[in-house]
Amino acid sequence: xxxxxxxxxxxxxxxxxxxxxxxxxxxxxxxxxxxxxxxxxxxxxxxxxxxxxxxxxxxxxxxxxxxxxxxxxxxxxxxxxxxxxxxxxxxxxxxxxxxxxxxxxxxxxxxxxxxxxxxxxxxxxxxxxxxxxxxxxxxxxxxxxxxxxxxxxxxxxxxxxxxxxxxxxxxxxxxxxxxxxxxxxxxxxxxxxxxxxxxxxxxxxxxxxxxxxxxxxxxxxxxxxxxxxxxxxxxxxxxxxxxxxxxxxxxxxxxxxx
Length: 258
What we know:
single chain; alpha+beta; CATH 3.30.1330.60; 2 domains; four-stranded mixed β-sheet; 9 helices; about 10% strand
């Protein structure tokens, strides 16, 4: 009888301990997930492993939402899943990046240098040259939007840089490398749905997500400012899905020129 009572007491204590653990924010799990995402970004996962990286970002967003709702048990589970997905994205990115470097080396050995020596310019290089001349002549003033750099678009209630939007960020990175004296501001925007405070925070997260990709691509973060306008400056004044899709964006704006 006494042994039964002891076992029952121990069982109840374990249950109480587990309940107490679930009642607190999963600080360590979230920190581990964030660190894994940062490691994935440093491995250029947004470029070389966009799908698993995007899934990890979405899971991180889900983790924050659970945590904000004080649903700590689900937040803890989601944070662990985020870390695992981010680690997979990092490993995949490292493999893909190594493969891309090898492909580039083979192309160079195959005669790419000769083509460059003959003065063959890509359309992107031509656009960069035009923009460089424009900024040198003062044609692009502070506050100007770069005409050749299209806004980065986002899914509803999300701040993950989609794979189909990465070329826009890569173009911005190349432009900044061609114009080392220039600085830009990333302006985050949302559609009209959601509260003002929520949309301001979401716009900021979108702008910071683009900033992180730019840094991964070699742009010094000190050259990039971030600002959120939330829903206040729509690109399209409409109130339908097409308008909302155009309004969920980050724009590139010049702060200073050379």
